[in-house]
């Protein structure tokens, strides 16, 4: 099938498919006599795998690892499980960080009385050098 058909069947955009080929997530497809890409059902299935991985927030490198594990019959589900558990822990950490941001923004917004810009509690909070950023914390660990 042509790239447009593979895109429709997999839910990926044409440029995304070409990108996955450039970065090695997809093997170079066969070509027709006229030079068009020709995709087999197995390649469309691989595109769906990649797409579903992206929907779950896996990075391209994590997906690359998962594809290698999927392609190797000697690998165990435990190897896949380790990647998924690490990814889940990362997601939970990001959720915690986002919840902290929500609480801080809610606090600052609740203090906002509107009015003059000079009295804006939101702008004052953004200027507050006493607030420790994630970047500051990372620098202290080094």
UniProtKB/TrEMBL annotation:
InterPro entries: DNA-bd_dom_put_sf, MerR-type_HTH_dom, MerR_fam, Tscrpt_reg_MerR_DNA-bd. The keyword DNA-binding applies. Pfam families: MerR (PF00376), MerR-DNA-bind (PF09278). Keywords: DNA-binding, Transcription, Transcription regulation. Residues 1-69 form the HTH merR-type domain. It comes from the Bacteria. PROSITE patterns: HTH_MERR_1, HTH_MERR_2. GO terms for molecular function: DNA binding; DNA-binding transcription factor activity. PANTHER family: HEAVY METAL-DEPENDENT TRANSCRIPTIONAL REGULATOR HI_0293-RELATED, REDOX-CYCLING DRUG-SENSING TRANSCRIPTIONAL ACTIVATOR SOXR. This is Helix-turn-helix domain-containing protein. It comes from Marilutibacter spongiae.
């Amino acid at each position: 099938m042509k790239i447009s058909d593979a895109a429709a069947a997999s839910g990926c955009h044409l440029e995304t498919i070409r990108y996955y080929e450039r970065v090695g997530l997809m093997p170079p497809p066969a070509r027709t006599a006229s030079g068009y890409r020709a995709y087999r059902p197995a390649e469309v299935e691989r595109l769906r795998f990649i797409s579903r991985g992206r929907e779950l927030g896996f990075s391209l490198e994590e997906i690359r690892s998962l594809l290698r594990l999927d392609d190797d019959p000697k690998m165990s589900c435990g190897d896949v499980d380790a990647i998924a558990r690490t990814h889940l822990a990362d997601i939970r950490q990001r959720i915690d960080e986002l919840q902290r941001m929500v609480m801080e923004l809610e606090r600052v917004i609740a203090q906002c009385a509107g009015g003059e810009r000079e009295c804006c509690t939101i702008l004052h909070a953004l200027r507050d050098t006493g607030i420790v950023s994630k970047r500051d914390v990372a620098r202290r660990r080094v």
